[in-house]
Design a protein that fits this description.
With 286 residues, this protein is α/β, with parallel strands linked by helices. Helix content is 37%, strand content 24%. β7 (166-170), α6 (178-195) and β8 form a beta-alpha-beta unit. It comes from Curtobacterium pusillum.
Length: 286
């Protein structure tokens, strides 16, 4: 019997997964350790969301296995998986007329059965999830009426109410402006630190991923191109190889995490040089 305390919360073993018999990822081995925030990065089409779906049992592997708490996830009943694992897909849409409270209450579905209907405890859990995501004042508003950041927090409240130890978040900051992106990622980090949630995310912004993650996994050419801490992973060489990006990596002035600064192209370099010349001329005139 597997010791849950030492087993990774999720593990891919020899995993090949894709669509219509065309693998996107091949023979991949990867462990997700309990209590960490891991972010999948990579160019478009590299398999970030595909891997997240395989971990969430949304997509069936073509070969290999995914283990949850040391047990093949395919052997687990759906309800048992939903009590351990919550997945937030890309750009979810709530049915028309759904309030925040109604939406979040759906997170309690894995804990219900014909013999155990809704209880006062379920309502308490939903209200606590709403409070944890800062939505108490809008709990009875239609989800469609909320700002982008509030909507994303409402969906995160749903997965919090599910009381699963592990959260899989597929591009939770998509279509949000920077202020709302920060709002959502700070919430994710708080859930990890205060509630011990294991979080696996897909993100596109490399600097934000570095700032809010313990570990980065970069996917490229059907496998893992880099895996480690943000400082270990985000190097100019890796950015060139996996993203085709010419960039410098400098410390974030606030957190010290790696921050990506793309190199200027010829036009931008010319503008910068002209700006410097104008500043020098202005100084000489003074």
């Amino acid at each position: 019997m597997t010791d849950r305390s030492t087993a990774p919360v999720l593990e891919a073993r020899g995993l090949s997964v894709g669509y219509d018999r065309h693998p996107v990822l091949t023979d991949l081995d990867l462990r997700i350790e309990r209590g960490t925030v891991t972010t999948f990065l990579g160019a478009n089409g590299c398999g970030k969301s595909t891997l997240l779906k395989a971990f969430g049992r949304v997509l069936k592997p073509q070969a290999g296995e995914v283990h949850l708490d040391g047990v093949p996830i395919r052997r687990e009943p759906n309800r048992a998986v939903a009590r351990k694992l919550a997945i937030l897909p890309q750009s979810p849409v709530a049915p028309a007329g759904t309030s925040v409270l109604d939406l979040v209450m759906r997170g309690r579905n894995p804990h219900q059965s014909w013999a155990k209907p809704w209880t006062a405890d379920d309502a308490d859990v939903a209200e606590q999830a709403i409070a944890a995501t800062g939505l108490t004042e809008v709990a009875h508003r239609d989800v469609a009426s909320l700002s982008g950041g509030q909507r994303q927090r409402a969906w995160i409240a749903l997965v919090v109410a599910q009381q699963a130890e592990t959260l899989l978040l597929d591009e939770p900051t998509t279509y949000l402006d920077l202020a709302h992106q920060l709002e959502v990622l700070r919430l994710v980090r708080r859930l990890n630190r205060e509630q011990g949630s294991t979080v696996v995310m897909v993100l596109h912004d490399l600097s934000l991923a570095a700032r809010y993650s313990d570990r980065l996994v970069v996917l490229h050419a059907g496998g893992v191109a880099a895996d480690g801490t943000p400082d270990e992973v985000l190097t100019p060489q890796l950015l060139e190889r996996a993203f085709g990006l010419h960039a410098r990596v400098v410390p974030d002035p606030v957190t010290g995490a790696p921050m990506i600064v793309p190199e200027a192209d010829e036009h931008e370099a010319g503008l910068a040089e002209r700006h410097e010349t104008e500043l020098a001329s202005s100084g000489n005139l003074g």
